[in-house]
Amino acid sequence: MQRPTKFGHTRYLGDKRTQLVYDVDSIDETRFGAIILDIVENEVGICFAPDTLPEARNRGYTLATECSKRRHLKPRA
Questions:
Q1: What is the value of pTM for the model shown?
Q2: Which stretches does DSSP call E strand in the chain?
Q3: Cβ atoms within 10 A of the Cβ of 73, count?
Q4: Of 2, 3, 59, 64, which is most buried with the most CB atoms under 10 A?
């Protein structure tokens, strides 16, 4: 999948509402494409520095998988 323009420099894109992180380089566009666009349109995305999965996990985010679903909560920040 092509990276969103706002997050063009990041590989891992987090959703503040669900605390899930998506690997934009290796996700299936048919399954997660709409989710990534929803994150960008609602401005609830977060990137991590350094752009690694351990840093995302350090901040409480979990890698999104096929069966991972969570309620959408109101972002705190």
A1: 0.80
A2: 12-15, 20-23, 45-46, 62-63
A3: 11
A4: 64
